[in-house]
Amino acid sequence: MNYHWNWGILLQQEPGGTGTYLHYLIVGLGWTLVTALCAWVLALVIGAIVGTLRTTTHPWVVRLGNAYVEIFRNIPLLVQMFLWFFVMPELLPTSLGDAIKQMPPPWGAFVPAVLCLGTFTSVRVAEQTRAGINSLPRGQRNAGTAMGLTSFQTYRYVILPQAFRIILPPLTSEFMNVIKNSSVALTIGLMELTGRARSMQEFSFQVFEAFAAATVIYLLTNLVVVIGMRWLEGKVRVPGLIAIGAGGGH
Amino acid sequence: MAGFDWGEITSNLPYLFGVGMVFTVKLTVLSMAGGIVFGTLLAMMRLSHFPVLSWIAGGYVNLMRSIPLVLVIFWFFFLVPYIWAWILREARPIPVGTFYSALITFTMFEAAYYCEIMRAGIQSVARGQVWSGYALGLNYWQTMGHIVLPQAFRNMLPVLLTQTIILFQDTSLVYVISATDFLGAASKIANRDYRLVEMYSFAAVVYFVISFSLSLLVKRLQAKIAVIR
What we know:
The complex is a heterodimer. Chain A is mainly α. Chain A has a single domain, classed as MetI-like (MetI-like fold, Orthogonal Bundle), CATH 1.10.3720. Helices cover about 70% and strands about 0% of the residues of chain A. Chain A is built from nine helices and no strands. In chain A, helix 2 (about 60-75) packs across helix 5 and helix 5 packs across helix 7 (about 150-180). By secondary structure, chain B is mostly helical. Chain B has nine helices and no strands. Chain B has helices at about 5-10, 15-45, 50-65, 70-85, 95-125, 125-135, 140-170, 180-195, 195-229. Chain B is flat. At the A-B interface, helix 2, helix 3, helix 7, helix 8 and helix 9 of A face helix 3, helix 4, helix 5, helix 7 and helix 8 of B.
């Protein structure tokens, strides 16, 4: 192949003057991780609430929860990203919409990206939460009721503490998915890792060095997250239970 | 919502569907076919008794599953012209166009996900089936082709189709290489006429209707298969 390799490019200055290209990519990784973490927290909160509501006995609450899940699951992530970035400010009251549009970079892209990834992932979390709650023996809920706990107390003290420990392993793979999915935010101008690899390629013409570096950084991140999550899983495992499996997807 | 221009949508329907949706559907169907074939081969490699084969397939699958699809799209978009030039012994990289670049990307990328599904499918077939195949004097390929894979496909059909719905949604990411798929067509009109709200809302509704209907069909199919078994 007629390609001029130049790995030294990673140690050369990038045109923005912030440092070397390698440093430029590492800062991108920082944005990837910050975006993913914020989105994950949002996803856990919304997903836990929606997933729990879907296990209640109120038919309309369950239907509303199902509708929420179907809407966010059946629209491509990129389209959702555009809805949050381009469409949402137009639907809000003018002053609020303008305030959002005038947020200085990178916040103007960061906030919609977090909202988009958070809600997108919350659907997966909701499914896992529901599966976790449904996997508990029915006797747990009955025991709560028999002890005189209200429905809310049964969830708070009996069901949810067990359910969350069961669903932690599948939730960790969702965190990896958020990290990968955050690359879609480059389409609305968030300069995260993939976005920076693309602009490095445009500045330096060293296409494969840029993408190879980004690939290696993603692989290392993956490794760190997997090891960290293994440790966490060991900490919260419920003794005597076989953890339930999780579905794929990306 | 006062200024929502329905005419903007109706007047551009031929372009949106005739050009954009045709691209999306062609890409989805061909990548699904290629991805399932390649993914099945990967799954057979992963389950093979030769450590080198299963190691290569496992490495490939884990690599593809660890990096974002957007990055994979960029990789192949720039890599394919070089590989093509190398095959044809040309000195300069040969552009292949966004469709073929996307087709290769999605075939290679989705194969990793189809592989995991097919691996589970092959493992769901009872071991005695393989033994009886060998006992009848069939070789590896005959046992696989006539006994194991048909059952594996049947067991995994709903999951394979669900993955294809995900693939259908993921094809929208070819936007990053400026391809004119359904979303790309909507985006081009949106930016030309400055009608972002109309175009992106319409795109969302169309994707939702198609994906949701397909997922309902898969559910019905799943119920049907479950009854027969």
